Amino acid sequence: MDAREEFPSARAIIAPPIQNTMPRKYNLCIMSATAKKYLPLGIIIIVALALYLFRLGGFPLYDYDEATYGGIALATLQNHAFFTLHSLTGPWFEKPPLYIWGIMASIKLFGISEWSIRLPSALCGVSAVALIYLLVMEMADDVTTATLASTALLVMPLFYFEGRQSRMDIPVIAAILFTLLAFIKGRKDRRWFLLMGVGLATAVMIKSVIGLLVGVPIILFALFFKEWKWIKNRYFWAGSGIGLLLLLPWHLYELSHFGNGFWSIYFTQQVFSRAVAGFGGGITTITYLELLWYQFVPWTQVAILLLPLLYFMKRSDARTKIAALGLGTALVYFALFAAARTKLGEYLLPIYPFVALYVTAGLSSLREKTSSMPRWIWAIGIFVIFSTGLFYTLRVQFIDFNKWYPAVYAERDIGNLIAASPTTTAIYSYNIQNYPTLLFYGEKAIVPLQSTTPPQSGSFMLIAQKRSIPVLSQIPRYAQASVAYDSDAYILIFVDSSTSPLR
Description:
Elements: H1 3-6, H2 10-14, H3 24-53, H4 65-78, E1 86-87, E2 90-91, H5 98-110, H6 114-140, H7 143-154, H8 157-163, H9 169-185, H10 192-207, H11 215-225, H12 234-258, H13 260-276, H14 285-294, H15 299-306, H16 309-312, H17 318-339, H18 351-369, H19 375-404, H20 408-420, E3 426-430, H21 436-442, E4 447-449, E5 460-465, H22 469-472, H23 476-479, E6 482-486, E7 490-495
Helix pairs in contact: 3-6, 3-7, 4-5, 4-21, 5-6, 6-7, 6-9, 7-18, 8-19, 9-10, 10-12, 11-17, 15-18, 17-18, 20-21
């Protein structure tokens, strides 16, 4: 007899091979159920990538944020810096560095272009769309509501428009949604609370205290879903501690190297002063309401129409809780932004994902309450709502953009002419308030003139608004200048010292 047959191995005795007694048909059913749950998400991600990346570099960077962040990323790379961001004039402390680091990485990988500078924000837009799906699945395990919610966020006009720009708003929203998802998943697997801390630190390192807004949906989730055990969970507090530890190195580094100069800009000017003293144009709470009504079509209108439904929704239904979470968070966010003295249209963007949760949970519940109604009527209603959203989304990006920013192409052209000019040629501007786009493309410092009095000597270039021509033409030195670029918005003139009457 073979010794191997007489003396079986110890491994075979201690742990005999486990045979799969589960029927193959049952395995296939599990795989099929998983595919049904996440196949819509895969399709939505593909569509979102196509929409967000389509002609992403097809229009110039413009004032204020886009050109500013692109210029900061380039200046930081040119200074071979990493921890401390730089502008053309020195260290830059207005925002945390994480989003700028993303732009720097994109430039390193794909080169300098509008496409590479916008790529991090666009990918965060796609991530936000996917995260809304995962949030609904975690809270309700409802594929229909999850699909509607992520699709709704995809075709919200200004969310898509801002996501295709180099701004911090959409990235911080994606970080907030991930933090909320990690918190909710921590109910079942407490290790997710550790990732919650990472998400929180990411949100703060993208846009400072705005990242802390995640606390609102967390509290409302606990309230509506009656989940308060996390308060006593050590993993939750460990995750919070991890978030704090991740935030400390950069903040302590900047404080130790730049002291009050850093803190006065980073917090006092950019956070405290904006909240209390005000900064920006004449936007009011009424402006916010008008923006939601006219630029948030059709979601504001649908959200209002669904309000009476909340009374009739089952309190125990997960969709009711999702709707309450979405509406409650949107209202609290709006109240906070309306109370702040500084008001900008982009500040309303964190409201949008939660409006998507509220509206789509309401629509899904409405379908159940009208189950006797033919399915095709409900399908037509959904098609009309989402088609309207898609129409306005594409219109805002590819039609309205040219109306809102008519000067952006002129700024790029003038900037390219400035970049090609001799380095010894001084560049001045007159009656132009913001010119980060000119700085980004021009790659040279621009000195604003406080009056029409020209510099006393030397050749120079002057950028001015087109409507300033009648004033400038009355000044001999400008009248003898040559026009280098002329557009409906701006004019670029070159003043040669050899033709100057002051020579």
